[in-house]
Amino acid sequence: MSLGVLGLRVDVDTHEGMRDGVPRLLEVLEEEGVKATFYFAMGPDRSGLAVLNALRPGFLKKMTRTSAARVYGLRTVLSGTLLPSRPIGVAFPRIACRARDEGHETGVHAWDHRQWQDRLFRFPPEKTAAELDKGFRAYEQIFREPPRTYAAPAWLSNDDALLHEETYNLAYASDCRGTEPFLPIVRGQTLKTPQVPATLPTLDEALGDTFQDAPAYFAAMVDEAARASWPVFTLHAEMEGGPYEDDFRVFLRRARAAGLRCVPLGELLAERLRQGRLPASPLHYEPVRGRHGVLSTQGVAA
Prior knowledge:
CATH superfamily: Glycoside hydrolase/deacetylase
Distance between the termini: 23 Å
Radius of gyration: 18 Å
CATH architecture: Alpha-Beta Barrel
Helix content: 25-40%
Order of helices and strands: EHEEHHHEHEHHEHEEEHHEHEHEE
CATH topology: TIM Barrel
Low-confidence stretches: none
Shape: globular
Structural class: alpha/beta
């Protein structure tokens, strides 16, 4: 049973999502009186390299059922392949700062989202650290202060990344899927940076698979959030800030009518900490319906 809070996390993965989707979402959130946590990818938009995943199970099916070219636009679909990549967060510092100035939490999502998502498990530790450092430096150049939160691209992390995150003294991270906030266990050590996992499936995972249309998906997410203790909903600037903007607005209103208070992830974590100590859990890797490959997931509490 929900305790009345619903964490909202906004992932910004592309140049168009930053330029067009974030301002639209800020307008919707302002009109509905809601705050969220925005995670900005900072560096190159190389979304077109996703085509290299064409032979992976589920990838082409997902691209087809979500109408990727319509949602993301042909420029994004070809970015980093037939067309040059363009920067994301660093290209639009005023938009990023607007999110903060309007009372939303802001954090780092990545430097190179595509490279992290596709190659993390081949990175040596120093490469993992360097990628994190580039994203964090870019954030500081924009906001003139260090980030308080970070979210791994595609919910994909590993021991090297979690250990390097510890050096930043973050308030929390959101690197995985799970059920409730927890402290990660890495190599037998319980880390100090809490994880606030996403708990609900995303629109691009569910559309055309578990749900045939967006209204059915968003209605079900309200019901699922109302049944969960610490629900976290992830939206994407490219989708809910694009063709599904109106559906997202209806979602916010239905959530309010269901007694859910939509909040940034930091506020959800604070509510959870008032209930007592966080459990400690390892990270596992599991497939998630509607998404190709594996994601980092919250393991069983120690």
